[in-house]
Design brief:
The chain is an alpha+beta fold. Helix content is 25%, strand content 42%.
Length: 116
């Protein structure tokens, strides 16, 4: 039976083997977006965005969102990265900001795990 061209198996054939889990760590600054649904984010640096883009066809859903497990300090949470202006952004939930005592402008180290 032929493999569907958009299936995970076919994509893995094209790009070669990938680890089951991709991890990234980077530093970023918390910023606030005051839109219809206000939220706090950290922008993923360009180099890490390139790595994420390479795996996005395997894991992305919806309009380019990538599901991840994120961690700042001792606090971890499940979320999805959003594509924005050629980068990805990490949404930072209120419970995370409260637990880690974070505010707009704070520089933090972010760890991401992407199931590939």
């Amino acid at each position: 039976m032929p493999v569907e061209p958009t299936s995970r198996a076919h994509l893995l054939e094209l790009v070669g083997s990938y680890p089951d889990l991709m991890t990234l760590e980077f530093d970023g600054e918390i910023w606030f977006w005051k839109g219809p649904a206000p939220w706090y984010f950290i922008t993923v640096p360009k180099e890490e965005c390139c790595e994420l883009e390479a795996t996005s066809t395997l894991v992305s859903y919806g309009w380019g969102m990538i599901p991840v497990t994120a961690q700042i300090g001792e606090t971890g949470w499940k979320t999805s990265l959003f594509p924005k202006d050629g980068f990805y952004v990490v949404p930072v939930k209120a419970v995370v900001r409260k637990a880690e005592r974070l505010r707009v402008g704070d520089a933090v180290t972010v760890r991401l795990a992407v199931d590939v």
